[in-house]
């Protein structure tokens, strides 16, 4: 099956004050995502993961390279084309406390993307009950405001908003990082269920390897603006080929004291070898 999204040799510098360009943030990134696939994008803070997601969504402008969606080069798509693409590409952000407009009822938050794509307001409102049901929220949530919900429930609303237009691709940028562990698992399972029923693809950005293991088919490891390793999750996490991936795995938290000891020894060995 041909890929849904392909990124080839993408470079990006943000404009900087006083200079024509700031430092290079993406340094020749190439990857692909198939229909119905989840690609986990991991890497330490500042490595460029969010920037890559923003470039895919047209929120950051690459300096060179190509982003191809369903065979169309969208690297520098016009605003008009981007508005149309919003039907197919959506985003779920990290912070469920700031990503929903506090002044709007949930029904308006969920109807908004449908109306923006030309649906009549009355018809959009009729869809709200079905969307709430898909993410496991009761129908009476429609008349309530974001402040009346927990973080996990708000993230369900954000996911309902993202799936309202039946997109083919959702960029999930640390969607569970702000949630406690048990709520994380519930929200991740919801995303997996939606993928199974709707065939949506995810570019799943996270610094958390246990989250990646839970949701991804493949994983790409980003280090200082470059992808240093890409492969099936089991291969990358069991037999990492790059030193940085090994470090990332060794830094992942574990409650098991034996594993903590093993990891301390492995970290020392890695440092000595360098
Ligand atoms: N709008 C912007 N203008 C200028 N520089 C930016 C902008 N957004 C991000 N950067 C810089 O780009 C680099 C990569 O940031 P980015 O947010 O993509 O990394 P990240 O891997 O997603 O990090 P985190 O996990 O902390 O979110 C950082 O040095 C950051 O300061």
From TrEMBL:
Give the top-rank taxon of the lineage listed in the UniProt record for this protein.
Answer: Bacteria
Family matches, as Gene3D superfamilies: P-loop containing nucleotide triphosphate hydrolases (3.40.50.300)
> Protein name, please?
ABC transporter ATP-binding protein
UniProt cross-references to InterPro entries, sorted A to Z: AAA+_ATPase, ABC_transp_ATP-bind, ABC_transporter-like_ATP-bd, ABC_transporter-like_CS, P-loop_NTPase
Residues in a coiled coil are none
**Coiled coil among keywords:** no
**Listed Pfam families:** ABC_tran
